[in-house]
Amino acid sequence: MGARLGLGLAALGRPGYLNVGHGAELGEDRSVDALRARTFEVLDFAYAAGVRDFDVARSYGRGEEFLGEWLRAHNPSGVHVSSKWGYVYTAGWQVDHDPPEVKHHDLATFQRQLNESRENLGEWLGLYQIHSATPESGVLADDALLSAMQETDLPLGVSVSGVSQAETIDAALATGLFDAVQATWNLHERAAEDALARAAARGLEVIVKEGLANGRLADRDDVALAAALAQPWATVVLSGAASVDVLRSNLRAREASPPDDLDALVEDSEAYWSRRAALAWN
Q1: What is the pLDDT of residue 156?
Q2: Separation between Cα atoms, residue 73 and residue 135, nearest integer Å
């Protein structure tokens, strides 16, 4: 069985995000009530279309809150819910607040955010991930923190980002603690794929994020996501759609063929991440 298409809520739970065209996709009304209604609409459509994997994070504004409310209202069967801890949302519902989120990979933040995630998601929380682990954060070398994560009895994951994705994945594998890894892979940035193959070979679930390179590949979304779905190590490929129309287009990837030449659009990894860092929240 091949990879599944899932839905990430990074662009739905807050009024600003760094996806190209995010502001146009959301439209004028970005109030809490408007984004709650939009999130429910997108979740309804996704579930009706067979999507069963939903990914969120503490730093996605009210993303966990919205998803939890939808789950309790519908009690859907067969869903897989993952969330992440380690970033604190600081934008205060502003679009371009600087910074919009701040990384905190310490024990106190983990304990607080775990309680918040459980309050929002309850029994639906099926995978809890470190949000954007890097060698610099030291999170994978913090024995007290890793022990506290193990004591939750939740399946554990680690998400990675930046030029050190492969290094961080291998460090996570060395701990033997994780059930899943989430990483950026797309037609522009493929540096992590060998490490992701190693993770899959060890039995970890592999979740692909940013398959459309934060909107840079939106004009070819079906083949770009199809390329990710075709990777033999992939378990779930996330759509970051913030509207039904965009999700409908993304879902075509399930029937599309990946491009013949996967190397045609590859960028230097450092250049890719520098360009991503320069994207404006909108």
Answers
A1: 98
A2: 40
Amino acid sitting at position 150 = Q
> Measuring CA to CA, which residue among 181, 232, 244 is closest to residue 207?
181
Q: CA–CA separation, 85 vs 103, rounded Å?
A: 9
Phi-psi map region of 108: left, alpha, beta (phi>0 left; psi -120 to 50 alpha):
alpha
Q: How far is Cα 131 from Cα 172, in angstroms, rounded to an integer?
A: 13
Domains of the chain: 4-257+264-277 (3.20.20.100)
Q: What is the 3-state secondary structure (H, E, C) of the chain?
A: CCCEEEEECCCCCCCCCCCCCHHHHHCCCCCHHHHHHHHHHHHHHHHHCCCCEEECCCCCCCHHHHHHHHHHHHCCCCCEEEEEECEEECCCCCCCCCCCEEECCCHHHHHHHHHHHHHHHHHHEEEEEEEEECHHHCHHHCHHHHHHHHCCCCCEEEEECCCCHHHHHHHHHHHCCCCEEEEECCCCCCCCHHHHHHHHHCCCEEEEECCCCCCCCHHHHHHHHHHHHCCCCCCEEEECCCCHHHHHHHHHHHCCCCCCCCCCCCCCHHHHHHHHHCCCCC
10-residue mean pLDDT profile of the chain (282 residues): values are 93 97 94 98 98 98 98 98 98 93 98 98 98 96 98 97 98 98 98 98 98 97 97 98 98 94 92 97 96
pLDDT confidence of residue 1: 61
